[in-house]
Amino acid sequence: MKRANFGSKIGVVLASAGSAVGLGNVWRFPYETGQNGGAAFILIYLGCVLLLGMPIMISEFIIGRHSQANTTGAYKFLAPNTHWKWLGFWGVMTGFLILSYYSVVAGWTLEYVMEALLNGFTGKIPSDFEASFVSFSQNPWRPLLWLAFFLLLTHFIIIKGVEKGIERSSKIMMPMLFLIIVMLVFCSLSLDGSEKGLEFLLKPDFSKVTSGTFLGAMGQAFFSLSLGMGCLCTYASYFNKNTNLTKTAFSVAGIDTVIAVLAGLIIFPAAFSVGIEPDKGASLVFITLPNVFQSAFGDVPVLAYVFSLMFYLLLALAALTSTISLHEVATAYLHEEFGFSRKKAAWCVTGCCLFLGVLCSLSLGVFQWFKIAGFTFFDLFDFVTAKLMLPLGGLFIAIFAGWFLDKKIVKDEMMTGGGVSVRLFMAYRFVLRYFVPVGISAIFLNELGVFS
Ligand code: TRP
Fold first, then answer.
1. How far apart are CA 276 and CA 31, in angstroms?
2. Which protein residues are within 6 Å of ligand 1, measured from CB?
3. Is it true that domain 9-447 has CATH number 1.10.4160.10?
4. CA atoms lying within 13 Å on the CB side of residue 144
5. Percent of the chain beyond pLDDT 70?
6. Is 1's pLDDT higher than 50?
7. What's the confidence (pLDDT) of residue 94?
8. CB neighbours (10 Å) of residue 218?
9. Nearest to 452 by CA among 236, 279, 212, 258
10. Which of 174-188, 233-247, 289-303 has the lowest mean pLDDT?
11. Cα–Cα 20 to 30 A to 208, which of 114, 145, 266, 401?
């Protein structure tokens, strides 16, 4: 079967970065940072990106490009007749769950696009934003409409195919999003009282670090880099032999991390400036951000209007390039493993995720009373995927690429497309084989209280 390919080198980086950059950076990173005490969390997060994220990302790239198949097909090809194929299956399941609740939040961004378009933010004060977010997210039907709309949008881009859909949209949007984020950082830092937010972000208080901080930072690193479920592995199956995998991984992780930190630099100075608690959780960004536009451009309503509209549009688009990558994992799986047409495969994925997404969305409103182990559906999906399923997937990917996969294949894949120095290759292999499995296990065991 002839498989699609990404057209150009820059397309490769942008499509992968498009997958990585999304609500994880702008929505989830600030809220996790806020709940875990700020600067110390960020430092641990950066460590996780470098020492766990990078080696696993390179490994996913190697597995994907070498096998040129969906994530289960990849393990079947590289390790025929073994149980490794379940690792691919695990990834597909994880992807389903993430896509379901991620689309709910992505749907919220569309509500904010609409609100911005209708000039609904003008003249409001912080408590108004809070009240309107609560009433919106608890409304029984409005978030559901946006959820369905967002999933269908993803669906139709997916069936248009890899190059045209994914690559083209990433190329235009990513640079634009970056520019507007940088501008917002300046706006936020210029607000009265923003220094406290800056201090929260830059001055680590290690007394606040608990086992949960490590688990949160690790989970966030996997989530934000799109790792641990074969997502970048599936994308890498569309790379060609001219792509330098290591360089691509560094670029993607670099872009992703810069955007997350910049998002933090927007949210916290603004939150402290208007007196919103940083540990507010999932609603933090949606309550804080509209304030930034109002306070920074209050005197020039046209600017407030234009920038807020642009920002929410770009955020929705960034979320879209991420949902596309999540959707693609499951669609490629059903298409290649079960012989479904791409269209039929995509419909199955969209249908399932819509069903689960509806549950997640309602669990914030009418089904708030229904909790499993103290979690609403929404929080449960977030916790189970980011803090358990992705790191576990990553652990096994590291074991597979480090201990099982033929060293020659790994080396060849790393050396094509410009290659890397032998030293870097050795460092990668060492970290992957020893540090990553030990590190991930230690964070899990620590959370279970084994070391305390
Ligand atoms: N990384 C994306 C974000 O930050 C979300 C995402 C896309 C993802 N694909 C993924 C997360 C695969 C985990 C696994 O918004």
1. 12
2. 19-20, 22-25, 98, 223-224, 226, 229, 231, 322, 325-326, 390
3. yes
4. 15
5. 96
6. no
7. 96
8. 28
9. 212
10. 289-303
11. 266
